[in-house]
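User: My collaborator sent over this chain with a note saying "see what the structure looks like." That's all I know about it. Can you take a look?
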Amino acid sequence: MIHLVWDNTNSLPVSGALWFLTALFIAEVIYFVLNKYIKNEKIRTAFILAICLAGNNVSKMSEFRLPFAMDAAFVGVGLFHIGYLTRRCKDKYHIERFRGICILLITVLGIMTYLSIFRNGIINMRIGLYSNIFLFWFNSVGACWTGLFLAILLSKYKNKFALMVNSGLQRMGRNSMTYLCMNQLVISEVWNAVISWEEVADYIVVGGLLFSIVVFSFSMIVLFLGDVVISKMDVKFIVGQ
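Assistant: Without extra context I'll predict from the sequence alone. Here is the result:
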């Protein structure tokens, strides 16, 4: 029970997603309260910035961890606010009308985020590991914006491939809890399966990048199929929906 409610599910088998559920709930409550009672956006943003920095640095300042993944929730409040500001700017300036700008942003942000992710160290919000905090935020926001602009761009094309990719992105967004609850187990099993395939593993493990791409690709296929099965069989309660 200590590991479940206090240690962010450390040392618990196949339960890595549980910390995220408590963190998400606490982040939603905090963000709701701040929006309700602090009407001045600049002051509210300053509060959110302070909360985020506290969440990023709890594990750096002490080995003590807040219960129910509260330090991760503090970081999540910042991600909520960035999402809110992004949505507001999108609605205000109607970015979807500017196809050329979307292509430019996808290209520049995609390349910069890709390079920056490999520049930063290991990230694990569950245990409070962020490596370089600036790069963590840059990569998080950059990856989200790249995905957003890609979805906006694809929504303007009507060919079969664009519609298929855009539909897949939308499905992942709608059923994100399925991917969240299944991702650790699926990635772990796919990783082990690829490693055990010696003839291929000896080739793709070199450098690590190709290996990660292969594991990611197969994991996404398995997660997609799992999502389809769960949706078709109407057993979403398995993943808390």
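A starting point for your reply to your collaborator: The mean pLDDT is 78.
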